[in-house]
Design brief:
The complex is a heterodimer of chains A (402) and B (548). Chain A is an alpha/beta fold. In chain A, 54% of the residues lie in helices and 8% in strands. In chain A, helix 21 links the parallel strand 7 and strand 8. Classes of the chains: A alpha/beta (402), B alpha+beta (548). Bound molecules: flavin-adenine dinucleotide and iron/sulfur cluster (2 copies).
C-alpha cells in the first residue's frame, strides 16, 4: 500500500466524458479509456498492485481527458504514475535512447550530415525496425550542425544590452534540430524590445517521463528550476518557452507528476505566445509586413491543457494578410516518442487520421502549430509543411519569405 | 380447492444467513436431505450487515476469554476451508495518546491465555505496514486478524450444499411453524415473488433466523426473548488501510477500520433498539459523526476521503433462560433444544455467536439435529474446503492462463470466486466484457451468478458479484445488468425494469445518510441519468409480486 496523498481519483463521478474525449480509446479497443485506466483501476491498484493492466501503456499522456473532466480528476497523471510505479522496469535500448533527447542531440549534432544521411537508408531503417522496434515508416527530424546554444553565445552580448529581458528555455529540439526557430524567437522578442537570455538547461523531462525514467526526469527538473530561477529572479525577467510540451512540463508535470515544487519559477513561466500576446495588448505591436499565405492552425494537446491556444490564435490574427483557418481540435497521435515505437505506430496514425483529413479539406499552403512533434507527425503524414507561430510572426517582422 | 404444494425432506433450515447456510452445508455433507428457506436473499440479514472482520479473538481476549478462544480456533480453520472468502491481512492494535496505556499490557497477557499470537512491534514498523496510520501512536501490537467476505462465504456454503443435493428457496418466508401436538413437523411458506403458498415437512427444523428467531418461535408457541442491539458502519470509497486497525482499549464505538476488498469500513457503534423496530432501523447522524471522528484518529486520511455509504445491522442477543428482564443475556453461541426447554419436539434454535463462528455454530446445530434424527454422522466441515477454495490460489498463474483478459479483470474474478474462475471466464467467448467497471464484474460472472448462485434480482446480484458496490453505486452497471436478466431468461423486461428501480432504491437508502461532497455530486449525476435520460421514475409497474 502506498501512502495516499494524491487522491484526485476519488472525485470521479463516472460521467465517462473523459472516455469520449480520449483519442486513443477511439482509435483502438485495446485501450479501455481514461476512466477505466485511471480512477477505476486505480482503486484496484491501491488494493493490489498486481492488478495493473498492460493496456495502460497505450495512453499517450495527451491530457485531453483532464481538460474534459468536470471533476478535476488528474486522470492522465494517475495513468502515468501508475505506469512507472507498478510496471517492472525492463530496460529497452530503444526507450533509453528515445528518452535521452539531449544525449542523442549532443552527439548527433557533431556529425549531423552523417546521421541525417544514414537514418534515411533502407538498411538502417530495416535495422531500426527489426531490432529497435522503431517503425521504418517513421521519418526522423533532421539534426542541425552544432547547437543553438553555441550560436547564441556569439550573440549573447547584444541580447544582454536590452533594458527588458526574458529568459528563454529553448528545449532540445531548438538546440539540436531547429536553430532557426530559436533565431526567430530572438527576432520576434527583439522586435518588441525584449532581449533574450539563455541559461543552462537540461531536457525538460517529457520524453523521460514517457519512458519511465522518473529519477532522471526529477533530476533534470530540479536542475532547470534552480537554473531558471537564478537567471530570471536576478533580472526580474519572465521565463518563456516556444515548445508547448516543455512549457507544460515546467508548469504542470513538475508539481503534479514528479511531485517537485516549482513555486520558485511558476509565476514567471509563460508560453511564448502568451508573453507576446500580453505585449501586443499593451500596444507594443511591431511593424509587420503582410504574409499572404493560406494557413491552417492545429492546436497541440499540451497547449490546450494549459489553456494557451487563445493566445496563439490572437497573435496570429495580428499578422496582416495571413488567411487563417482554425482546425477542429484533434490529437495528431504522435505524442512525443509514442509514435516512434512500432507497437503504437498504427494507433498513432489512426489517432491522427481525422486531423490529417481535416487539413486536407482546408488544403492550406502551410500548417501552423506550436509543437515540434505535432510538426513531425503532420509533415510525415500529409504533404504540407508545418511552421511554428513564432516563425510566421518573425517573417512578418523581417519580411523574409516564409 | 386447489391442493397446496408440499415438500418432504429430512431437515428444514430456516434462515439463509451464515449460520443457516453453514448448517445446510454441514447437514448435506453428512448425507442429510435438507431444505433451506430464506425470506429474502442469502446474507441479507445480519450476516450482510457487519464489517466482515475475521477476528483473531484479540478484541475479546480481555473481557470474554471463551469467545476469544472460539475465534482463534475458527480463524485457523476458516483460513484453510474458505480461502477465497478471506484476506489474511493481519491486524494491528494501536494505542493513541489519549488511550489508557495499561490496556496494552493487559491485552498481551490475555492473548497469551487465549492462545492468540500477539506480538509487540515498534511504531516505525507499524507505520511501515500501514503507511496511512496516525504517526502519533504510542505503541502497536500485531495479531492474526483478517477479513472475511460474508456474502461470498454464505454463497459458497449454499453452492456446495446445492451441488450435493440440497434445496434452496430464497425470497420465500416462513409464515408459521406447523405443530402436531407437542411436535413441530413443518413450516408454512410463501414465495414472495409469486405469492404462492406451500408447506415443507421434515423430521427436524433448525431455526437459524437470527434476530428474527423470536417471531418464529412465537409462531410455534415458544417464548424466546431477543435483545437487539444496532451497530452502524461507514464505507470509504477505496482502501485506506492494508490490515485491520484496532484501537487498543476496552471495546467502544468507532474502534476498528477494516479493509474489505476495494474499500475500507469504519465500525461500529452499539445502540439498543426495540424489538418491534428491527426491520426499520436506520443509521443516525450522530453515529456517522462518531465513526468518522474516531476513524480519523486512527487513519487521518479519512477526513479527505469520500464516504460511500453507511449501513447498520442488528446483533441478535438472546435471553437464555427465557427470563424477561435480560439479566441472563448471552453474547456467545446459543443452541436451544426446544424439546428440553419448551417441550416442543423437532425444533431447535441456533443463534448468537459471530460470523466468525458460523461453522462452529453450524456444527453444533447439525450435531443436535442428527441426534434428533437418530443419525450417527460425523461433521466434515473442519477440513472440507468450500467450492472455490479447493487449492491455494496463485494470481500470477491465473493471469497467465487468461492471457488476453486484463489483469484487473482476472484478478478481481479470482479474488471473488477462487478456483471457480475457470467456470466463469472464457478467453474465447468474449464473456469478459465489463458490466460493472468500478469492481470489474464481467458478463460471464453475471451469467454464472444467475445460473448457479441463486441470484434472483439485481440486489442479489450485488451480493454475489459486488456489482454496484463501487464509487458510482450502480450508475452504469445496474441497467446493463437489468438487460442481462432478460438475455439469460431470468426475468421478463417488465420484471427487470422493476428490479432496476428496487436496486436503485436500495442503493439510495445507504447513500442518504452521507450525502455531501463527492457522494452528493455523484448521486445527482446518477439521478439525472436514470430520471432525466431514461425516465425511470415514470415507468408504471403492475402491483404484484414481492411485498415491498
Ligand atoms: C454491527 C455488527 C458488526 C458485526 N461485526 C462482526 C464481525 O466483524 N465479525 C464477526 O464475526 N461477526 C460480526 N458480527 C456478528 C455477525 O454479523 C452475526 O453474528 C452473524 O451474521 C449472524 O448470522 P446469522 O446467520 O445467525 O443471522 P442472520 O444473518 O441475521 O440470518 C438470519 C436470516 O434469517 C432470515 N429469516 C428471518 N426470519 C425468517 C423467516 N421467517 N423465514 C425465512 N427466513 C427468515 C433472515 O432474512 C436472515 O437472512 C457483527 C454484527 C453486527 C450487528
Ligand atoms: S492522456 Fe490522452 S490518451 Fe491518455 S487517457 Fe487521457 S485522453 Fe486518453
Ligand atoms: S471525466 Fe472525470 S468524473 Fe467523468 S468519468 Fe472521467 S475522470 Fe470521472
Amino acid at each position: 500500500m502506498i501512502k495516499l496523498e494524491n487522491i484526485s481519483f476519488d472525485h470521479c463521478i463516472k460521467c465517462t466524458v473523459c472516455t469520449i474525449y480520449c483519442p486513443v480509446a477511439r482509435a483502438t479497443h485495446h485501450f479501455p479509456g481514461p476512466k477505466q485506466s485511471g480512477p477505476d483501476t486505480e482503486r484496484l491498484r491501491i488494493k493490489n498492485p498486481e492488478l495493473l493492466d498492460d493496456s495502460l501503456k497505450y495512453c499517450t499522456n495527451c491530457k485531453r481527458c483532464e481538460i474534459a473532466c468536470p471533476s478535476n480528476v488528474k486522470i492522465a497523471d494517475i495513468i502515468q504514475s501508475s505506469k512507472w510505479r507498478y510496471f517492472k522496469n525492463v530496460f529497452r535500448v530503444r526507450d533509453f535512447f528515445l528518452a535521452r533527447t539531449d544525449l542523442m542531440g549532443s552527439v548527433a549534432t557533431r556529425v549531423s550530415y552523417l546521421v541525417n544521411f544514414f537514418i534515411k537508408l533502407f538498411p538502417v531503417k530495416f535495422f531500426l525496425d527489426r531490432f529497435m522496434k522503431i517503425p521504418s515508416e517513421r521519418r526522423f527530424p533532421k539534426y542541425a550542425q552544432g547547437t543553438f546554444l553555441s550560436w547564441y553565445n556569439k550573440h549573447r552580448k547584444e541580447q544582454e544590452a536590452f533594458a527588458e529581458k526574458a529568459v528563454y528555455f529553448h528545449g532540445c529540439y531548438v538546440n539540436y534540430n531547429n536553430h532557426d526557430l530559436g533565431k526567430d524567437v530572438l527576432t520576434v522578442l527583439n522586435a518588441i524590445n525584449v532581449g533574450v537570455i539563455v541559461t543552462d538547461e537540461k531536457c525538460c523531462g517529457v520524453p523521460l517521463i514517457a519512458n519511465g525514467y522518473i529519477d532522471k526526469a526529477r533530476k533534470n527538473a530540479l536542475f532547470n528550476i534552480h537554473s531558471l530561477e537564478k537567471s530570471a529572479s536576478a533580472i526580474g525577467a519572465r521565463i518563456v518557452s516556444a515548445s508547448s510540451s516543455c512549457s507544460f512540463a515546467l508548469k504542470h508535470e513538475y508539481p503534479n507528476l514528479l511531485e517537485i515544487d516549482n513555486s520558485a519559477i511558476l509565476d514567471d513561466l509563460d508560453y511564448i505566445t502568451r508573453f507576446i500576446h500580453e505585449r501586443f495588448e499593451n500596444g507594443n505591436v511591431p511593424a509587420m509586413k503582410p504574409v499572404p499565405v493560406r494557413a491552417a492552425y492545429h492546436s497541440p494537446c499540451h497547449l490546450e491543457r494549459m489553456g494557451g491556444v487563445m493566445n496563439t490564435i490572437e497573435v496570429l490574427k495580428k499578422i496582416p494578410g495571413l488567411d487563417l483557418t482554425i482546425l477542429h481540435s484533434e490529437c495528431c497521435g504522435i505524442a512525443g516518442t509514442y509514435g516512434f515505437k512500432k507497437e503504437y505506430y498504427k494507433v498513432a496514425q489512426k489517432v491522427g487520421a481525422e486531423l490529417f483529413k481535416r487539413i486536407e479539406r482546408v488544403n492550406p499552403e502551410i500548417v501552423i502549430t506550436d509543437c515540434e512533434t505535432c510538426k513531425w507527425q503532420i509533415e510525415m503524414s500529409t504533404p504540407y509543411r508545418v511552421e511554428h507561430p513564432v516563425t510566421v510572426l518573425a517573417r512578418a517582422i523581417d519580411g523574409k519569405k516564409l | 380447492m386447489r391442493l397446496m404444494k408440499r415438500i418432504e425432506t429430512e431437515a428444514i433450515v430456516i434462515g439463509g444467513g451464515a449460520t443457516g447456510a453453514g448448517t445446510l452445508r454441514d447437514l448435506t455433507l453428512r448425507g442429510v436431505r435438507a431444505v433451506l428457506i430464506e425470506k429474502s436473499d442469502m446474507a441479507s440479514g445480519t450476516t450482510g450487515r457487519n464489517h466482515g472482520l475475521l477476528h483473531s479473538g484479540a478484541r475479546y481476549a480481555v473481557n470474554d476469554l471463551e469467545s476469544a478462544r472460539e475465534c482463534i480456533r475458527e480463524n485457523k480453520i476458516l483460513k484453510k476451508i474458505a480461502r477465497h472468502c478471506i484476506e489474511d491481512t493481519g491486524g494491528l492494535f494501536v494505542t493513541l495518546p489519549e488511550d489508557d496505556p495499561s490496556y496494552h499490557g493487559k491485552l498481551i497477557e490475555h492473548c497469551k491465555y487465549a492462545g492468540i499470537r500477539c506480538e509487540e512491534i515498534s511504531v516505525q514498523e507499524a507505520l511501515r505496514i500501514e503507511p496511512n496510520l496516525n504517526p502519533n501512536i504510542l505503541a502497536a501490537l500485531r495479531v492474526p486478524d483478517g477479513t472475511i467476505d460474508p456474502f461470498r462465504l454464505t454463497s459458497a456454503n449454499v453452492l456446495d450444499a446445492q451441488e450435493r443435493g440440497a434445496i434452496v428457496l430464497t425470497h420465500t418466508g416462513v409464515s408459521g411453524v406447523i405443530r402436531e401436538g407437542d411436535r413441530a413437523t413443518g413450516v408454512n411458506c410463501r414465495d414472495r415473488r409469486t405469492g404462492e403458498e406451500f408447506e415443507v415437512f421434515g423430521g427436524i427444523i433448525v431455526n437459524a433466523s437470527g434476530v428474527w428467531g423470536q417471531e418464529l418461535c412465537a409462531s410455534a408457541g415458544i417464548a424466546l426473548r431477543m435483545f437487539p442491539s444496532k451497530g452502524s458502519m461507514v464505507i470509504i470509497d477505496y482502501r485506506i488501510n492494508n490490515v485491520v486497525v484496532n484501537r487498543c482499549r476496552v471495546p467502544s464505538d468507532g474502534d476498528i477500520v477494516v479493509p474489505g476488498d476495494t474499500v475500507s469500513l469504519i465500525g461500529t457503534t452499539s445502540k439498543k433498539v426495540d424489538y418491534d423496530k428491527i426491520d426499520e432501523i436506520t443509521v443516525d447522524q450522530d453515529e456517522i459523526a462518531t465513526l468518522l471522528e474516531s476513524g480519523e484518529k486512527l487513519i487521518p486520511n479519512v477526513s479527505r476521503t469520500r464516504v460511500l455509504r453507511a449501513y447498520c445491522g442488528v446483533r441478535p442477543l438472546i435471553a437464555v433462560s427465557g427470563e424477561m428482564d435480560g439479566r441472563e443475556i448471552s453474547r456467545g453461541i446459543v443452541l436451544i433444544d426446544h424439546e428440553k426447554r419448551d417441550s416442543v419436539g423437532g425444533f431447535i434454535t441456533i443463534a448468537g455467536g459471530k460470523l466468525m463462528t458460523y461453522r462452529l455454530m453450524a456444527e453444533m446445530a447439525a450435531d443436535l439435529a442428527c441426534a434428533k434424527l437418530n443419525l450417527k454422522k460425523r461433521c466434515r466441515t473442519r477440513t472440507t474446503a468450500l467450492p472455490g477454495s479447493e487449492r491455494k490460489l496463485d494470481q500470477a498463474k491465473s493471469v497467465k492462463f487468461f492471457t488476453g483478459i486484463p489483469n484487473s479483470v482476472v484478478g478481481s474474478t479470482l479474488y471473488r470466486h477462487g478456483q471457480r474462475i475457470r467456470n466463469i471466464l472464457h478467453r474465447d467467448k468474449r464473456n469478459y466484457g465489463l458490466i460493472c467497471e468500478c469492481e470489474m464484474v464481467t458478463e460471464g460472472e453475471i451469467e454464472y451468478a444467475l445460473k448457479k448462485l441463486n441470484a434472483k434480482d439485481i440486489v442479489d446480484l450485488r451480493r454475489r458479484t459486488r456489482i454496484g458496490m463501487g464509487p458510482c453505486q450502480g450508475q452504469l452497471c445496474a441497467y446493463r445488468a437489468a438487460g442481462l436478466f432478460v438475455k439469460y431468461d431470468s426475468a421478463t423486461s417488465t420484471e427487470s425494469n422493476k428490479m432496476l428501480v428496487d436496486f436503485l432504491e436500495e442503493r439510495w437508502k445507504g447513500i442518504k445518510p452521507v450525502l455531501w461532497g463527492d457522494a452528493l455530486r455523484s448521486v445527482e449525476f446518477c439521478y439525472w441519468i436514470y430520471q432525466g435520460l431514461f425516465g425511470l421514475g415514470d415507468v408504471k409497474f403492475p402491483e404484484e409480486g414481492e411485498d415491498r
